[in-house]
Specification:
The protein has 9 helices and 15 strands. The longest helix is centred in the middle third of the chain and has 13 residues. With about 325 residues, it is of the alpha/beta class. The strands form 3 sheets. Strands 3, 4, 5, 6, 7, 14 and 15 form a 7-stranded mixed beta sheet that branches. Strands 10-9-8-11-12-13 form a 6-stranded parallel beta sheet, sandwiched between helices. The structure holds NADPH dihydro-nicotinamide-adenine-dinucleotide phosphate. NADPH dihydro-nicotinamide-adenine-dinucleotide phosphate (NDP) binds next to α2, α3 and α9.
Length: about 325
C-alpha cells in the first residue's frame, strides 16, 4: 500500500500559457486526520478555465494561488480514514481539495456524493459548479423566459452544454457556438439545440444574421473576444448578455480590447451583467434539486471527458481546455496512470 501523497504546486506565475515551469510535483506522507477531521483519497479532479485566472497575482473574486501552494481545484474522493462521525470511511465526498492525491478536511463546504443519482465525475459537472453556473447564470442573471432566442458560446463545454439544454427545457430557441463539426453535430443531435455555428470554419456574424434574423434575447458568453462582438451586433430590444467567462483572452499577455459593438447595448436597451457562481451558494439547494430531477428523468444529457494520468498529467490536461480538446466537463482521473 502506498504511503506517499503527491501533489501539484505552483512553482512560478506564468506569463501567457502555463508551461512545465509553472508547476512543481511534490511528495509527502499521506496526511493523518486530527480530531474532527477526515482524509480523502481523491479519485477525480475538476479542470477549469478559471484555474488560469487563479494564477495571476491580481485582485479578483478569490485570492490568487500562492507560490508553493497546492493548486486549487474541486475534486471528488472517498474518505480513507476519519475522526469525524459525519464523514465515515468509505463515504464519497466532493470539495475544494486541490490537485493532490490525498487531502485532509474538517467537512466545511464538503458535499456528500450520491452515486445512485449520477457517477462521481458528474458531481464535478452538471451536479457541481458548472451545472450551478449554467442554472443561475441563465435563469437569474439572464432572466430567461419561454420563447426567448438564446445564444451560447463555448456551447459544447461543461457550462455551455447545460445552458443550451436548460434553455430548451424551458421553451427557448437555442443556437450554440462551438469549435468543429463534431461538437456542432453533438449540439444539434443528442442535445437538441436548434442550430450550431462552427466558429472555426464560418463567420459567426453571417451565420447569426441567417439563424436569428430577428435578433437574440440572451447571449450567454463563455468566450469573449470577437464572438462577443458578433453577438452584440445581433441583440434584440431588451436583450440580456450574461458575462460568464472570456476564455479567448485568459492566456493573453496584452490587455484585451473591449467589444467595439458595445453601443448595441444602448440602442437595444440591453444589459450585460457579470456574475460569479459562488454568489449563489445559498441557493445551490434549489439549483441542485432542479438539476437532480432533470437527470433522474433523463431530460439533461451529462457528459464528462475523463482524462487519464493523475498528477503527472495535470499540466498537459489543463491545456486541453485552451485547445478546445474537451467535450463536456473535463475531469482528471487522479490515480489511473
Ligand atoms: P469548457 O468545458 O467550455 O472548456 C473550455 C472551452 O472553451 C474549450 O473546450 C473550447 O471549446 C473553448 N475555447 C477555448 N479557447 C477558445 C477561444 N479562443 N475562442 C472560443 N472558444 C474557446 O469550460 P467551462 O464550461 O468549465 O467554462 C466555460 C466558461 O465559463 C469559461 O470562460 C469559465 O471561465 C467560465 N466559468 C465562469 C464561472 C462563473 O462563476 N462566472 C463558473 C464556471 C465557469 P471550442 O472547441 O468550442 O473552442
Amino acid at each position: 500500500m502506498t504511503t506517499a501523497n503527491r501533489q501539484v504546486r505552483l512553482a512560478q506565475r506564468p506569463v501567457g500559457r502555463p508551461d512545465d515551469n509553472t508547476w512543481n510535483i511534490t511528495s509527502e506522507p499521506i496526511p493523518e486526520p486530527a480530531d474532527g477531521q477526515f482524509t480523502v483519497r481523491i479519485d477525480y479532479a475538476s479542470l477549469d478555465p478559471a484555474m488560469r485566472g487563479w494564477l495571476n497575482d491580481v485582485r479578483s473574486y478569490v485570492p490568487p494561488v500562492g507560490i508553493g501552494e497546492v493548486m486549487r481545484a474541486h475534486a471528488v474522493g472517498r474518505v480513507s480514514s476519519s475522526k469525524n462521525a459525519d464523514h465515515p470511511v468509505g463515504q464519497l465526498v466532493s470539495g475544494s481539495f486541490g490537485i493532490t492525491e490525498y487531502a485532509v478536511s474538517d467537512g466545511r463546504d464538503v458535499v456528500v456524493v450520491d452515486e445512485t443519482l449520477a457517477p462521481a465525475p458528474t458531481w464535478l459537472g452538471a451536479l457541481g459548479f458548472p451545472g450551478m453556473t449554467a442554472y443561475f447564470g441563465l435563469l437569474d442573471v439572464g432572466r430567461m423566459k419561454a420563447g426567448d432566442t438564446v445564444l451560447v458560446s463555448g456551447a459544447a463545454g461543461a457550462v455551455g452544454s447545460l445552458v443550451g439544454q436548460i434553455a430548451k427545457l424551458n421553451g427557448c430557441r437555442v443556437v450554440g457556438i462551438a469549435g468543429g463539426p463534431d461538437k456542432c453535430g453533438w449540439l444539434t443531435g443528442e442535445l437538441g439545440f436548434d442550430a450550431a455555428i462552427d466558429y472555426k470554419s464560418e463567420s459567426v456574424g453571417r451565420a447569426l444574421r441567417k439563424l436569428a434574423p430577428d435578433g437574440i434575447d440572451i447571449y450567454f458568453d463563455n468566450v469573449g473576444g470577437e464572438i462577443l462582438n458578433s453577438a452584440l451586433a445581433c441583440l434584440r430590444e431588451g436583450a440580456r448578455v450574461v458575462l460568464c467567462g472570456a476564455i479567448s483572452g485568459y492566456n493573453a499577455t496584452d490587455p484585451q480590447p473591449g467589444p467595439s459593438r458595445y453601443l448595441s447595448l444602448l440602442v437595444n436597451r440591453a444589459s450585460m451583467s457579470g456574475f460569479i457562481v459562488t454568489d449563489y451558494l445559498d441557493r445551490f439547494p434549489e439549483g441542485m434539486a432542479a438539476m437532480s430531477e432533470w437527470i433522474r428523468r433523463g431530460l439533461v444529457v451529462t457528459r464528462e471527458q475523463v482524462a487519464p494520468g493523475g498528477i503527472d498529467a495535470f499540466a498537459s490536461t489543463l491545456g486541453m481546455l485552451f485547445d478546445g480538446a474537451n467535450t463536456g466537463k473535463l475531469v482528471l482521473n487522479m490515480h489511473e496512470q
